[in-house]
């Protein structure tokens, strides 16, 4: 079983002669408890082409210390990582292997670096004896195990914030260290430094290595450049969100689904730039993946909506075991959908899709129009999506309230989402007009989305009411909520003409064309 923790730490350059300052002079520190020296032995794993290192992930098997075992770290922000831990074993635990699947696929993980660390540990304690942070002075020796046979050695200071600690405390510690002449490390992690300094023929200091690695990509110049930059960003998002979905992190399913939809929309919007004979099959698989993710996401959205609706009712109108029935119904449906989602991510079809996305990223299927200037090609594509949306909005407004209009508004919602994504994809090239266009399309999408969520909620409320009635419970509250959802849908239908009038102003479209 794997455990997870948020790791917030900072690293500093040191030498064997570096002397720590008086740390009790740091605000909030009442005492420093010297815990002694521990010997750590860690083997870091990666693919031969270092896919994990490229994404700033680290996987290690470490012996020694209080937390020996397997550790997998995901970057969250500068100095912040999520660490997933699993007990010590001879082989990589399946729980961690699954979190690496989107990046590793079927490629073997091999030992790349071994680090021997002699760690001198100090606990910084508050007035009540609670742990504020752990400061260690690490003497490190690195040995390359794959892609070379180099070695390196250095000393560093590491300060890790205690669980649930205030990150501002690290600022106070750093201020004290800087006054003593200690400076932040140029390397983000021990592994990054080890890889840099043990690489064949490496003679470059870590600081220079890091500056080189941060060079920005060439600025896009053509319409194809811009579209592919957007496509690559969405592919990266799909791969990066895979482990978050497996960990059931908040909003992860939604964000992954959005990335798949943005990709598919880009393929369809920019079909004059990207060859459809290549993108259509990939788009079909993205549609499948989005639908599978939607089973879990749609249930999540519905649960939140119904819980909020019940919470808004006066207590006198909540009759019977309403919350309990909703909870049982939701848990049963969510458990099944979650198992299915994880099963999809473990399946061969999903891995094949990831391989197809990699191939498309490596060899973009550009058509001749891709060579055009972005200010010429991109507005045409965005406005085609706008015209499609305008047709669907017009059709929906012509219909009388009822199932046919509900369906037409749902179709319009999908067109609004595509138009919004088209504008977002063009923003880097077209600037403010595309950004404003995307914002107006989002307003239309949001209104139509709330209408569709009301349609789905009414179906669920009918089911819950029937179940309550069959169990001998009153269905009064479920009927009341159903009426509220009917009123919400009617309100959104009345608001649509005004929202669409703002989104469809000719001036907005003219700005796109320059």
- Strand tally is 8
Strand content: 15-25%
Largest sheet: 8 strands, antiparallel, barrel
Average of per-residue pLDDT values: 93
Write down the secondary-structure element order: EEHEEEHHEEEHHHHHHHHHHHHH
Give the overall silhouette.
globular
Strand order of the largest sheet: 1-5-4-3-2-6-7-8
Helical residues, percent: 55-70%
Unreliably modeled segments = 204-215
Radius of gyration: 28 Å
Number of helices: 16
| CA distance, first residue to last residue | 57 Å
Q: Helix/strand-derived class?
A: alpha+beta
Q: Your description of this structure?
A:
- The protein has 514 residues and is α+β, with helices and mostly antiparallel strands.
- 56% of the residues lie in helices and 18% in strands.
- The protein is built from 16 helices and eight strands.
- The chain has an eight-stranded antiparallel beta barrel with strand order 1-5-4-3-2-6-7-8.
- Helix 13 runs antiparallel to helix 14.
- The N and C termini lie far apart (57 Å).
SSE topology sketch:
Elements (H helix, E strand, L loop, with lengths): L2 E12 L16 E16 L4 H4 L3 E6 L5 E9 L2 E7 L7 H6 L1 H4 L5 E16 L5 E14 L6 E11 L6 H12 L10 H9 L7 H8 L9 H24 L5 H18 L6 H37 L9 H24 L2 H15 L11 H25 L4 H28 L1 H39 L5 H28 L2 H7 L2
Antiparallel strand pairs: 1-5, 1-8, 2-3, 2-6, 3-4, 4-5, 6-7, 7-8
Helix pairs in contact: 7-8, 7-11, 7-13, 8-9, 8-13, 9-10, 9-11, 9-14, 12-13, 13-14, 14-15, 14-16
């Amino acid at each position: 079983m794997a455990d997870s923790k948020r790791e917030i730490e900072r690293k500093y350059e040191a030498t064997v002669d570096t002397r720590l300052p008086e740390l009790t002079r740091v605000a909030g520190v009442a005492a420093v408890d010297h815990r002694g020296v521990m010997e750590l032995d860690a083997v870091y794993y990666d693919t031969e082409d270092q896919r994990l290192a490229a994404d700033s992930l680290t996987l290690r098997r470490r012996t020694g210390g209080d937390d020996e075992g397997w550790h997998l770290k995901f970057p969250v922000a500068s100095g912040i990582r999520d660490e997933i831990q699993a007990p010590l074993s001879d082989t990589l635990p399946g729980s961690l292997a699954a979190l690496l699947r989107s990046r590793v696929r079927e490629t073997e993980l091999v030992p790349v670096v071994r680090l021997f660390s002699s760690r001198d540990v100090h606990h910084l304690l508050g007035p009540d004896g609670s742990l504020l942070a752990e400061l260690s002075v690490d003497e490190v020796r690195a040995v390359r195990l794959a892609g070379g046979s180099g070695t390196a050695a250095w000393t560093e200071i590491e300060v890790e914030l205690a669980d649930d600690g205030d990150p501002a405390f690290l600022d106070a510690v750093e201020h004290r260290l800087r006054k003593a002449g200690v400076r932040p490390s140029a390397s983000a992690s021990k592994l990054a430094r080890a890889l840099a300094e043990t690489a064949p023929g490496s003679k470059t200091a870590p600081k220079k290595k890091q500056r080189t690695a941060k060079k920005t990509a060439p600025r896009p110049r053509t319409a194809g450049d811009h579209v592919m930059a957007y496509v690559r960003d969405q592919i990266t998002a799909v791969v990066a969100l895979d482990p978050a979905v497996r960990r059931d992190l908040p909003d992860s399913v939604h964000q992954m689904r959005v990335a798949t939809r943005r990709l598919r929309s880009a393929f369809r919007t920019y079909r004059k730039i990207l060859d459809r004979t290549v993108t259509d099959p990939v788009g079909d698989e993205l549609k499948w993946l989005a639908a599978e993710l939607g089973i879990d996401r749609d249930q999540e959205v519905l649960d939140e909506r119904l819980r909020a609706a019940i919470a808004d009712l006066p207590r006198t109108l909540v009759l019977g075991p309403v919350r309990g029935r909703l909870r049982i119904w939701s848990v049963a449906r969510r458990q099944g959908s979650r198992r299915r989602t994880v099963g999809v991510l473990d399946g061969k079809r999903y891995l094949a899709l990831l391989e197809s996305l990699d191939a498309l990223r490596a060899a973009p299927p550009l058509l001749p129009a891709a060579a055009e200037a972005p200010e010429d090609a991109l507005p045409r594509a965005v406005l085609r999506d706008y015209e499609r949306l305008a047709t669907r909005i017009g059709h929906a407004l012509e219909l009388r309230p009822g199932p046919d209009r509900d369906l037409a508004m749902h179709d319009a919602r999908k067109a609004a989402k595509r138009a919004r994504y088209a504008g977002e994809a063009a923003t880097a090239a077209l600037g403010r007009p595309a950004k404003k266009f995307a914002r107006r399309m989002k307003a239309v999408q949001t209104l139509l989305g709330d209408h569709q969520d009301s349609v789905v909620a009414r179906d669920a409320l009918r089911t819950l009411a029937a179940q309550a009635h069959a169990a001998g419970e009153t269905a009064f509250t479920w009927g009341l909520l159903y009426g509220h959802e009917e009123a919400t849908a009617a309100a959104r239908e009345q608001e649509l003409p005004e929202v669409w009038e703002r989104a469809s102003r000719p001036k907005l479209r003219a700005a796109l064309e320059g």
